[in-house]
Amino acid sequence: MDDSDAASGEGSTGAARTIEGVVVDEPNRTALVREWWRALADIDGAHNRQALLAHLLGDLLSGLAAEPFDAAVGTRIGEALARAQLIDPTVPIVSAQVLHGLADQVGHPDAGRRLAALLVAIGQGHQAQVHADARTLDRVRRDIDQRFRIVFDNAAIAIAVGDIDGVLLEANPHLAAMIGVPAEDLRGISVYDFAHPDDQDEIRNLVYEKLVPAQEGTVKIERRLLRADGSVGWASFAITYVKGTDGQPDYLLALGEDVTEQHRLQEELQHQARHDPLTGLPNRRHLLDQIEAVIATAATADRIGLCFADLDRFKHVNDHYGHGVGDQVLAAVAARLDRSVRDHDCLVARIGGDEFVALVPPPASSHHVTVIADRLKSSLAHPITADGHELQISASIGAVVTPAAGANPESLLDAADTSLYYAKTNGRGHWVLHTLHAPVGR
């Protein structure tokens, strides 16, 4: 509002206004309002309160002429100034300096004494209202702080406040429970104290090399969490950069949740997708992925081997004893095959009904693969007991050794299956090894 926005009043410029027996020239009244407005604006930015001051000046003039005189009018004016957020302690003093000449403009024999009493009352009312507002504000702030603390302490998510260097300033009980320590023990420690060592570089890059330098924004992190008991969990956090107010330093606000169970379920689903449910061995998909991984990292001279085992006359077991016994036999065979080559760093997979494959990673010489085939065959030498029946089980094995670099997983499996065919033509419990000098093509 500029100086032209004077308080509106009845009558034209130059006219006189009668306020309860007090005659005040309109130009003088308007000028006084402007002077009062400017004086208060200088100390409290009261640029939009000119109309209020015009109203309060009218109350003051009425109070000067009122019969009987009541100094409480000044108290109410002081309270109104404070309620208008003119709370600087110098407001009553500046007001008195501006208004002290009113006594000369009021035709009342006791105007000077009355004005002095009103100005004192303005100061008293102003001070009382400021203090009352401050007490109310303190109470509101306490209520807000109390409600915030209730939410903070009882939130179903983890909440942490940290400085921009990663030191925790506050942590709620939910976060403390996730880590397994009392909340008060988290204050003053670094976030790296409970971040997995393998994840710390990524946290540093996302938060302290990107978010903090930008001084704004939010990043989302889902990484491993080190618990106090030594176990490892997973946590998902949204971390926001918050600028400090009232001279306070900037800080980081983190909201998160424990997602360990979700990761466990995801890992379980992945395991189920890549493992045989009956035997627990890797399935065909997992085997092919492992062969692909070996081929992808193989050196030129590296060789890879497969031993493809098929149980002899297993259909007879199912037909004669039932599929329940057949499943017990398959589980027992899987365990024996796996144990027999475990110390050779071989992976054993079940790829079909009674078909098992052992992957022999580099360096896989013909001799090495021969040893593996013998161990697989020997593991089935003793009878298997299933549902009270002792069953003698044997397997025919087709083995292949080929250069790893440039090979194709499916073609390699087909080559081992071809070797198995020749082994079966020799009768039960035999194995055949084919050594290939060129990789099985893609």
UniProtKB/TrEMBL annotation:
SMART domains: GGDEF (SM00267), PAC (SM00086), PAS (SM00091). The lineage of its organism: Bacteria, Bacillati, Actinomycetota, Actinomycetes, Mycobacteriales. Coiled coil: none annotated. This is PAS domain S-box-containing protein/diguanylate cyclase (GGDEF)-like protein. Residues 1-20 are annotated as: Disordered. NCBIfam families: GGDEF, sensory_box. Gene3D superfamilies: 3.30.70.270, PAS domain. Residues 219-271 form the PAC domain. InterPro entries: Biofilm_reg_signaling, GGDEF_dom, Nucleotide_cyclase, PAC, PAS, PAS-assoc_C, PAS-like_dom_sf, PAS_4. It holds the Pfam family GGDEF. Residues 144-215 form the PAS domain. Residues 302-436 form the GGDEF domain. SUPFAM superfamilies: Nucleotide cyclase (SSF55073), PYP-like sensor domain (PAS domain) (SSF55785). It comes from Nocardia mexicana.
